[in-house]
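Friendly challenge for the regulars: who can give me the structure tokens for this chain first? No prize, just bragging rights.
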Amino acid sequence: MSRVLIVGAGLTGSLCACLLRRELQSKVQIVVWDKARGSGGRMSTSRSPDPSSHSADLGAQYITATPAYAQSHHSFYSELLSAGVLQPLLGQVEGLKQKDDSKNYTTPLGMCSVVKHFLSESEADLFFECHVTGLYRRGASWEVQRKEGDSETFDAVVLTMPVPQILQLQGDVGHFLSVHQKQQLERVVYSSRFALALFFPPDTVFSFSWAARYITDNSCICYIAVDARKRNADAPGFGPSLVIHTSVPFGLEHLERDKEDVQPIILQELHKLLPGLPQPISIKCQKWRYSQVLTSVQDCPGHMTVLDRPLLVCGGDAFSHSNFDGCVESALSVLSALKASL
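First reply, four minutes later:
Bragging rights claimed.
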């Protein structure tokens, strides 16, 4: 039985694990490692420290399906809709620039529920707080080293973390990347931003009716959402949560500052936009150093094969584009490389 390690429990990694299980069933042992404390990656959902508040999506907010992808990725949308993981976005989104006949979908249980659905389907062995630091070729397999100091051996490895983290890996990855591949990876550019979640007590009432709002005339804040409204989730007994995303220029300007120093600046701007906002019971600030891919790997089929035997392949939105369908394309592309190798 082949042992396959997928590094990264975000959308690409989880879908890749799911597709591999469906394709090879019991012929493969699938292991997923993520350095975070939970799954989701940039589709993570944060719980409030106080159980009386609604959870908050700090990364991706909703999924937009263009007519072309609604057709080519119909099976994925159909599966998630049938499972109740996705629902049409019904709430009022102020300032939303709707393109062509695209459809927007939201997640009643939070964006991480998409990732959790595919991980559950994959029956993978899932391990958190596993930070990969190096890969070393050992004959027909890879020895994968963790920050904790231990290592494990696998027949194939899939790397789905942000590209700069791939380039930082110790060991043999750098030796097997061609000069052209290294140049391709070094040209990848990500946007950066901060996100805030404000958690409120159950008796909180907001003075506005929208579910989400895009802001165009503020240099700091570009988006605000009331999470339960955005998710069509009626949550009686729970206090609302408010999600704030900063603009990319603001994120880049303050990227190297501690998030504890940036949080008061964002809150000050928020109170200008929403005067009279009630006092939250807790606040969480997230720095997304790698938010969305601005420049992806050029001329790439959705993955990059570093070595054929033993297989080492890179995938993720940097090898396609930064949204749900980009991750689906990459996962399908990685699957084809795995099938050819295993």
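The two ends are 10 Å apart (CA to CA). The first strand starts at residue 2 and ends at 7. Your move, everyone else.
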